[in-house]
Amino acid sequence: MPGAMKRPAAAMSGGPPGGPLRVACLGDSNTVGCGLGRSGSYPSRLQKILDRDVGDGLVQVRNFGVSGTTAVETPGKKYYVDEEKFQRAMEFGPHYFVVMLGTNDAWHQAGEPDKVADAIDSLLIELGRQGGRRGSAGGSAAGEMASVLIVLPPGAKPGRLLENLKNVHMDMRLRASTWTRDDPDTILVDPELPVETSYRPDLVHLSAEGAETLALAVAKKLMGPRLQNDISRTAFCKCLAPPAMSSLADLSASVHKASPTVDHSTYQYHIKLQLGSASWEVTKRFSEFDTLLQSLGNSRYAGLPRVPAKTLWGSPTDNAAIDARKEQLRIILQDLLLRPDTRTSQQVRTFLSIDSHTDDGAIRTLQPEPLRTFEDPRFGVSGICVAPEANLLLVTHEDSTHLSRLGRVWSVVEPDELGALHLWAKHSDGSWKRSYSQTFGIKVRSLAWESLSRQFFVGLEDGKIQVYAFAEGSTQPDVTCTLELHHKSPVTHLSVSTRKLLSLGLDTAMRVIDVHSRELVCGGRLLKRLRSDMDYLSSGFLDDERDRAFIGTSGG
């Protein structure tokens, strides 16, 4: 079967024992970085990301792109496998190949885009035929196979290129299940490039933003268990977690004594801290602990410990009371330092003078910062789907109050509105605006987005699933059909792939349908698999590549 041949890494001709893991980027001008300069290409950006997130010097990325090359061996075209750089890539001895070819096949007038998926099959076989075995340069056992990441070729120019690429992407997605089944180390990468920001004016070549988005997508796929295991076997293994986080986790603090303040109005508590070889001491009053916790609360940190209540007689003066308060403050410090989010907060770092005893900028705050709020104050959120390739955010809402069961009988003007669908579009200036809204007289329970066909599915409380799609060039969705799969029982969850839709209902039934023909593929009720009659199907995931589904229940 094409693509079934394993791909051992080429014989290692360079690199000392324990050297870096090697990544070879194969492709055309979008790999070269046409118009972006030497440091602007996606391989250069990938190197920077891996240095930052994995460890400086642990992974070496090299660019083997050749402008104008094709994936298909078309007469008169520049076939990539025939290029000298392909041979140099094999001699480089990669542990990981990143292949991004097909744009020129779709763009050239005499190209053969319908053969790109077959050509990738042939390339996978070629990598195996010319490859050797991993050697000591990567620290891996001889005979271990190299991983291959296959990137969907970019391009957004309307007309021949865009239409051909749609078919190329479809073919590659369908073929990906075979690639993955034959070799789990073959991975398809969809960089989901927003058209508005990812391309230069010709809509063929990547912009700086597009190269960065692509590099991030490839890095995300690379930084998996395989890479971690490979790095752990190198002679200069480094921790994959950011060093500042692991070192800060070693911070210890103890309240070792209390002493009167200068004016003898109250007591101050001496806190001894140890971080690696550094040790220091800070003194804090009881009221400063209270101020610290209030500041953390105002910054949306939750689940914080409480400061002991003050006594009617003011600050404690006897030794027993002081020792008790020291222990209480020690517990508060311990709670704050055990949590990664609070111990890295600016408030705690300032309180304990941590920054002055660590490298500047070495500590990363974990508290997320909200950038934009999308809300419908009438309802709760029942589903969210993000569509970066369409610059859309889809949100469904439902009335979650007890009164929603009765309907809004107190109003004779407003009809019952128990659910809503909102689409938010991102504009070129970075702002988000609501582009479409629809309200329902019943609850909207679930939502799923399918990017390839640009359609989405909305599950309702009456068991129906409304199917929406975007016409070519339109920003407004149209209802294309309504599916009835659960006999008036609420649709509890939807999961979709490029070919199939998984639907779960409160009737304990699962249904899998073809997203194009709407025909039922398989299904049935799972009542006998539940722990009790009160349980229901609550969540699921459709793994179409391996032809399986994962289903969660309310009973665990």
TrEMBL record:
Q: Which CDD domains match?
A: PX_domain (cd06093)
Domain PX as annotated: residue spans: 245-359
Which Pfam families does this one have?
Lipase_GDSL_2, PX
In terms of InterPro entries, this protein maps to: PX_dom, PX_dom_sf, SGNH_hydro, SGNH_hydro_sf, SortingNexin/PXDomain-PKLike, WD40/YVTN_repeat-like_dom_sf, WD40_repeat_dom_sf, WD40_rpt
Where on the tree of life does the source sit, at the highest rank?
Eukaryota
Q: Which UniProt keywords apply?
A: Cytoplasm
The entry lists its GO molecular-function terms as:
phosphatidylinositol binding
Q: Which GO terms describe its cellular component?
A: cytoplasm
State where the protein is found: Cytoplasm
- Enumerate the PANTHER family for this protein: PX SERINE/THREONINE KINASE PXK (PTHR22999), SORTING NEXIN-16 (PTHR22999:SF23)
Protein's UniProt name: PX domain-containing protein
**Which organism was this protein described from?**
Polarella glacialis (Dinoflagellate)
According to the entry, what is the taxonomic lineage of the organism?
A: Eukaryota, Sar, Alveolata, Dinophyceae, Suessiales
